[in-house]
Amino acid sequence: MYIENISGPADLKKLTMEQCKDLAAEIRELLLSRASQIGGHVGSNLGMVEATIALHYVFNSPVDKFVFDVSHQSYTHKILTGRKYGFMDSARYSEVSGYTNPEESEHDLFQVGHTATSISLASGLAKARDIRGTKENIIAVIGDGSMSGGEALEGLDFSASELKSNFIVLFNDNGMSIADNHGGIYKNFHDLKNKDGNADDNMFKALGYEYIFVKDGNDVESMIEVFKKVKDTDHPVVIHMSTIKGKGYEPAEKDKESWHWRKPFNLETGELKSDFNGERYDRVMRDHLLEKMAEDSEVVTMIAAVPDSLNFTAEHRKKAGKQFVDVGIAEEHAVAMAAGLAKNGCKPVFATMSTFFQRTYDQISQELCINNCPATLLVINASVYSVNDVTHIGIFDIPMMSNIPNLVYLAPTNKQEYLAMVDWSIDQKDHPVAIRAPRNGVFYAEGDVDKDYSELNKYKVSKSGECIAVLALGDFFQMGEELVKSIEETFGITATLINPRYITGVDTELLSKLEENHDLIITLEDGVVEGGWGQKIASFYGPSDIKVMNYGLRKEFIDRYNLNEVMEKNHLRVDLIIEDVKNLKMF
């Protein structure tokens, strides 16, 4: 195996063309073997094998600098830059992340996981190079639908006109985003591909780039030839290469959407090794929204290139018809569009992950909330229980969103409450509303839940008690239930349990009433404590003698974390909270 002799790019450069082709096959085997055992981004990486080999064959990394967009298609790059152990040794899989990471290698410049960033990042590298007077090549790698992202277009626009020096954009056009591409820009790309790069309209040329089309980006010899041609160029160039997403693995080539990212699977059949068939909130909400759209033609479900956030498969998207809108990788546009839909009489519901809502702060504040447009935002994966890659953690949304005026941010604790809040939000006309989808499993309400949430900031007392009150927000409510039981067992105190429901406000009437017979308030929230909801409660009680203990997560970036370790470190366990209460020596 040639891969056994590759410890870095210098070893790769010793191979012949035929050996490079054999190496590509070996790398595909490694990619599939690792993904079949632990999951990962499959389709994109299979399609980028030859191009990555060619990059390292021609250029001189890390002197020449590569920036991978999203960096989910950087697995071959990692194998060729001294990290093959993370793909060959199952005991060391966890040592290599699914995204570029400078802590792993000098060949990785940035730790990134969001889309449409590579061209802007690379333009900064190029500008710094020109200022400092060095001569290295700067290459931005972008694809998988990222080219329609606003930041990508901003980076393209700037770099073509303002950089008068070496700047190479490698556009991996595999005809897909996570699902289908959306937007007129892809019609031009499709036309260019069909005409071997010779279409009358060419966006890249119009911007000022030299344009090179590669018909087969999965041919290593063709890619090496074109990279040799542009190496050390003195002006901006776009290389538009056509590749096959999922190249070399039949199931991934046939079903590109399902194989963008895949859970562990049977390598021979492609079938998942295990699939959770029970109730999940994404499927619950998908079915509910399909019912709402069928009943009301003004309800519009919106996503931004991630239909899996609500498990909207191609079949479900077809069923929803024109009431389903995929804006592509354009979250900012989605929120502004939702405001426009609401202003003109429709009932938009935009769903995406908490980490991606970070990109929309300005639109939520300006277009949506200043104008008080009654759109619904579903915030997915906003939880420590969710995705644990540092670029995708969803624990920062409460400080960000709960302090925007006019926005009502709700935190349901169970299935019935979640659906009721969505129904109320869709039908009301007075507020923009965000709803934080639970992530700790599907729970059911023991009794009826409220249907009307128009009287804002009214918390719900689930159990009345004295001395200690536990205010447990959203999907930490179940932890609150356990804590109240443990308080009674440990201290003989019947504690009060409160479901706050509203993240964006404080129930001053209820909190004032608690002062009559409570000495300690405990808040629980599934997000960062600093600037979060619990500190609003602590601020309310500041002038009083009541003690407040805020529990949540520390303000820090955590990567590929062990959930139990994070919960323990932050004392987000009932037994640890009980010990903290004991240490107060109040009871």
Secondary-structure blueprint:
Elements: H1 9-12, H2 17-38, E1 40-41, H3 43-47, H4 49-58, E2 65-68, H5 75-83, H6 85-88, H7 118-132, E3 138-143, H8 150-162, E4 167-173, H9 185-194, H10 203-207, E5 210-214, H11 220-230, E6 236-242, H12 250-254, E7 261-262, H13 281-295, E8 299-303, H14 314-320, E9 324-326, H15 331-343, E10 347-353, H16 354-357, H17 361-370, E11 376-380, H18 397-401, E12 408-410, H19 415-427, E13 433-436, E14 460-463, E15 467-472, H20 477-491, E16 496-499, H21 508-514, E17 518-528, H22 533-540, E18 547-553, H23 563-569, H24 574-584
Parallel strand pairs: 2-3, 3-4, 4-6, 5-6, 8-9, 8-10, 10-11, 11-13, 12-13, 15-16, 15-17, 17-18
Antiparallel strand pairs: 1-7, 14-16
Task: Summarize the entry for a quick read.
It is built from 24 helices and 18 strands.
Distance between the termini: 68 Å
Number of strands: 18
On the 0-100 scale, what is the average pLDDT? 96
Low-pLDDT ranges? none
Rg from Cα? 26 Å
Lateral strand order in the biggest sheet: 9-8-10-11-13-12
Gross morphology = globular
| Structural class assignment | alpha/beta
Largest sheet: 6 strands, parallel
Helix-residue proportion = 25-40%
Q: What percentage of the residues does DSSP assign to strands (E)?
A: 15-25%
Tally of separate helices: 24
